[in-house]
Task: structure prediction
Amino acid sequence: MIYSIMSIAAVIFAAMFILTLALLHFLKPEFDPKWRMISEYEIGKHGTLMQGAFFAWAASVLFMMVVAWRFIGSAGGIIGWVWFLIIVLALVGAGIFKTNAITDNSTGRDNTIHTLCESIVILTFPIASTLVANALLRSPFWEPYTLVVFNFTLLNWLGMIGFFASIIWSRRKDPSAGRVGPKVLLGWPNRIMVVIYNVWVIVLAVCVIQMMK
Result:
């Protein structure tokens, strides 16, 4: 029963992140989603909504990892599980420490910490999810969900690759695009990537809810 409750909580918090992110597109239209990062929604009015979204994402991962611990038995799975706790801390850090605008090149403690936290999540979520998914699928309880878990774990990698590919493509298309800016079209790939990461959590949680019936 407790695993079902925590799985439902993971679904709710991940859905809260996705819905809040969608809402912010209407509340803060000044941040063009074609080239602005989601973290920039922390800046200015309604910024606390984006901060809360990061906290919700952290909560969803934490609840899911507490549930997943029951099924993890391999060394690789334990490494992935522990790394997800680091990702949870990184998401909390991303919510506490606000980023600068992508066009602001000034340095500062908050922006530096946020950038570090952001990098941990973006770069390592697919790695941690692969380690955990591989461990889960070793359990007979997860055998009926092998294909769905494999596919959505693969999507994590495609989401991350697509994000960085959009940056490379934009710069090759227009060498004058610079490091970031209106010509570097990383905005939508950034949004798609983080939504995929949250959907992975939802999928795992739903699998647990199903097997606990």
User: Anything to note?
Assistant: The chain is about 70% helix and 0% strand. The chain has a mean pLDDT of 95. Residues 2-211 form one domain. The chain has one domain: 2-211.
